[in-house]
Specification:
Layout (H helix, E strand, L loop, with lengths): L30 H8 L16 H6 L2 H19 L10 E2 L3 E4 L4 H19 L1 H19 L1 H33 L1 H4 L8 E4 L4 E5 L12 E6 L3 E9 L5 E9 L5 E3 L10 H15 L9 H4 L6 H10 L11 H17 L3
Antiparallel strand pairs: 1-2, 2-3, 3-4, 4-5, 6-7, 7-8
Helix pairs in contact: 4-6, 5-6
C-alpha cells in the first residue's frame, strides 16, 4: 500500500461538500464585462456527480492514446535522466493540475500556411474544375478554347492554385527538415486549474506580453469562480455552446474552449462542466476515464478509493477497443437522457 501521509491538499483546495462561498468584497465587474462573458445568464451549479462525461474528451483521449502518451513521457524522462535535454513541458494534464500552453503565434502561422495551402490546393480544385467545365459548356463555343483558357482558367491557376501549392510545399519542407522552427517551445502557460491547491490561475499571455510570460496575472480559489454556458450563433443560425469560467467579483474570465472547443451540443458542454467540478473536488476521486488513469495512484483521495474498491490500476489501458466503444455508446445514451 502506498503511503499518502506526506501528500497533502492545500487548505484552499476545493471541497464540494462545503457551503458555497459568499464573498464580502464588492463586485468590480462592469455591465459590459458581465454581458460579454456571461450573456446575463445564471451561473451553472457546481456538482461533482460522476458517470456522465463529454464525448469529445473520450474521443480525444482513448486508452490507446493514453498508453502512447505515457510511453513518450517515460521516454523523455529517461532521456533527461541520462543527461539529455531536460524534460520541462510548459503545459500538461495530470492528477495535480491542468495547465494549458500552446505554440507561439509564428508556429501556428506556419502550420496554417502549410495545411491551409494543402486544403485550398486539393479540396477546392475539383469544384473549380467542375465549375470551369460547366462554364465552358455554356460560353466556350462563342470565344474558342484558347481565349477561355487565357481569360477564365489561367488566372485562377496562376494567382490562386500555384501560390497555394507553394505555401503547402514550403510549409511541408520546413516541418519535415526543420521541425524546430515550427514546433517551438511555448514561452509560458496561459492558465491552470490546480486540484491540489484548488487555485485557478491566469498567466500573462506570452504572445502579447513576452517579458512577463509565465508570471501570474490573476489567481483565486476555484470556489470563487462560476461556470457559464454561453451561446455563439453562426451565420447559418446554428447555436454553438462553450464554457466560460468567470470570477465572482473581479473582472477575471477564462474561456475553456481551448480544452473543450465550442460545439452545437449543449449537453456536451454541461458534461464538461461536471468533469471540471469533479476534477477540482478533492472530496471525490479523480474522474474515472482514460485521461487520468496514469495519475490515479498519485492522488491521495483517488488512491484510497481505488484500494478500497479493488480497482484494477490498468482498467482502461488494458480495455479492448470493442469494450471502449460500448462504454462510449452507453455514456452518450446517459448524456442525452439526463435531466439537465
Amino acid at each position: 500500500m502506498t503511503n499518502t501521509a506526506l501528500i497533502q491538499y492545500e487548505d484552499t483546495a476545493y471541497r464540494g461538500n462545503r457551503k458555497s462561498l459568499e464573498l464580502n468584497t464588492p463586485s468590480g465587474q462592469s455591465k459590459l464585462f458581465l454581458k460579454g462573458w456571461t450573456q446575463g445568464g445564471g451561473a451553472l451549479e457546481k456538482s461533482s456527480r460522476s458517470g456522465i462525461f463529454p464525448p469529445m474528451v473520450l474521443e480525444t483521449w482513448p486508452p490507446e492514446a493514453i498508453v502512447e502518451e505515457e510511453n513518450l513521457r517515460q521516454q523523455f524522462e529517461q532521456e533527461a535522466a541520462n543527461g539529455g535535454e531536460p524534460y520541462n513541458p510548459a503545459g500538461w494534464i495530470s492528477g495535480i493540475s491542468i495547465r494549458y500552453a500552446t505554440l507561439p503565434r509564428v508556429s501556428w502561422a506556419l502550420l496554417w500556411m502549410q495545411h491551409g495551402g494543402r486544403i485550398a490546393a486539393t479540396w477546392l480544385f475539383i469544384p473549380f474544375a467542375l465549375g470551369m467545365i460547366v462554364l465552358w459548356a455554356e460560353t466556350g463555343d462563342k470565344s474558342g478554347f484558347q481565349v477561355f483558357w487565357d481569360e477564365a482558367v489561367l488566372p485562377w491557376i496562376i494567382y490562386f492554385f500555384i501560390p497555394m501549392l507553394l505555401l503547402w510545399s514550403v510549409g511541408y519542407l520546413i516541418e519535415k527538415h526543420f521541425p524546430h522552427i515550427i514546433y517551438r517551445r511555448p514561452k509560458g502557460p496561459k492558465w491552470e486549474l490546480n486540484r491540489r491547491t484548488g487555485m485557478v490561475t491566469l498567466y500573462h499571455d506570452p504572445d502579447t506580453d513576452e517579458q512577463r510570460a509565465g508570471q501570474i496575472s490573476a489567481q483565486a480559489p476555484f470556489q470563487e469562480w462560476d461556470g457559464y454556458l454561453v451561446t455563439l450563433p453562426d451565420r447559418q443560425g446554428n447555436l454553438w455552446y462553450r464554457l466560460n469560467l468567470v470570477h465572482k467579483t473581479e473582472e477575471w474570465a477564462l474561456p475553456l474552449n481551448q480544452l473543450m472547443p465550442a460545439t452545437t451540443n449543449r449537453e456536451d458542454v454541461l458534461a464538461f462542466w461536471l468533469l471540471i467540478c469533479r476534477y477540482m473536488d478533492v472530496t471525490q476521486p479523480l474522474p474515472d476515464i482514460p485521461l487520468f488513469e496514469s495519475f490515479r495512484h498519485e492522488d491521495p483521495r483517488t488512491l484510497r478509493h481505488d484500494e478500497k474498491s479493488g480497482r484494477d490500476p490498468r482498467y482502461w489501458r488494458d480495455m479492448s477497443r470493442q469494450e471502449y466503444e460500448r462504454f462510449k455508446q452507453d455514456n452518450r445514451h446517459k448524456l442525452y437522457n439526463n435531466k439537465w
